Amino acid sequence: MTAPFALTDATLVTGDAKGTVVPDRTIVVGGKGEIEQVGPTGETPVPQGYRTVDARGRFVVPGIINAHAHLFSDGRPLPAILLNEKAQGAVSVVSRSFVGRQLFTRRTRANVTTQLHSGVTTIRSVGDVGYEVVAVAQEIQQGKYPGPRVLASGPLLAVTGGHGAPQIALTGDSPWAARANTRRNIQRGVKAIKISATAGVTDAREVGYAGRPEMTEEEMTAICEEAHNAGLLVAAHAQSKEGIRNALRAGVDTIEHGAAMTPEIIELFLDNPRSLHGTSAVIPTLQACLPLVKLDPEVTGVNDISRANAEMILEEMIQGIGAALEHGIPLGMGNDSALTFVPHYDVWREMDLLVRYGGLTPAQALHAATQANARILGVDTVTGSVEPGRAADLVVLGANPLDGFRAFADPELVVARGTVIERPSVTRFPEVDVHLDAL
């Protein structure tokens, strides 16, 4: 049970696509962590015994949903050994040892707490070293410490030598091997499945390598069938037209990163009978590419091949965002946290970049990170909006985020399922922030 309370005299930023802002609201939260009432302050009584928090001059926003997160690192440049192809096998063995599991579990606890204190109340992980994120999600659910709602994927699924393999992936090279790996993840308690449909930027071997199809449509179909039988959504790392088309034809529910679209791809997004709910969505991740493209390689530590691939993928991703906006394709928000120059404390930057580079309005960007993400991930009856019956996942800000998403950099209160974080604080990396601010 949480302590019941009410936020009074608040300005509510609803998170709808129109950018609706409603002044003078009282939000009443009960002892089960759910919103009981939302209404005009003068007409919404606070029950006796409920704590009252004066939110006059403050802005209340639905908790942010990060639909594309990793939790194995803190967002500073990754050590060179993790990007060394020859060392990947040894790194993978150490990571999955007892000591490695302990290390990544501690990192996960720290990183989900950082995201929570930054206003993120729901996280979907999309590629873990092992099942450390599953374990942390269970600890939070059991009430051992406050945390966001975590939909853990466990290791992503890839082909031998594919994107993410072997450090954060289970590998297989046939439909039956892919099906077996899916079953293994489900048995370990994951709440999401992630696959590598194409090659990626960080492990590109030559210019033009990112986006190269890796997993076959038959392999991805087997994964989707198993996941959907268990009621789980499937996310696909896909960074080319061919890779996206194959993934959608297989029944993938969310395309991560994205690329330019063809008429066939657009139609598959809007009407995808093999997906879990009949449509598919795109989750762009501008934060994963922009720093690699815009900043000096001596700052980011990436090599010329990765940078050239990032330039190519960024251009395609922006085209994909434009197509999604034009054709009404469901568009969510994820920031690829833990990757180079993507710290856990500034998911707000992804919304900012969606406006600056993706062509969204501020209202559309906030909508993508709240109500739209909730629908895409199938949790919209639980979270994503501020209304009675939903979990009390709230962020209290000193300024209207529609006037600038930097308002999320210092939230005054964060509420996760009714638990109030009174003085949210994070450890920042000034050496990273100074360069990100230049973007």
Keywords:
four-stranded parallel β-sheet, alpha/beta, single chain, 439 residues
Q: Which strand-content bin applies to the residues? A: 15-25%
Distance between the termini: 43 Å
| Secondary-structure element pattern, one letter each | EEEEEEHHEHEEEHEHEHEHEHHHHHEEEH
Approximate shape: globular
Helical residue percent band: 25-40%
- Tell me the number of helical segments per DSSP (H or I, 4 or more residues long): 13
Structural class estimated from helices and strands: alpha/beta
Number of E strands: 17
Low-confidence stretches: none
Mean pLDDT: 95
Rounded radius of gyration (Å):
21 Å
| Biggest pleated sheet | 8 strands, mixed
Fold and architecture overview:
- The chain has 439 residues and is α/β, with parallel strands linked by helices.
- The protein has helices spanning 88-95, 98-117, 132-141, 175-187, 217-229, 241-250, 263-270, 286-294, 297-300, 304-327, 348-356, 362-376, 430-437, and strands at 5-13, 21-29, 35-40, 51-54, 59-62, 64-69, 120-125, 149-151, 156-158, 169-171, 193-196, 234-238, 254-257, 281-283, 394-397, 413-416, 419-421.
- It has 13 helices and 17 strands.
- The longest helix is centred in the last third of the chain and has 24 residues, at 304-327.
- The mean pLDDT is 95.
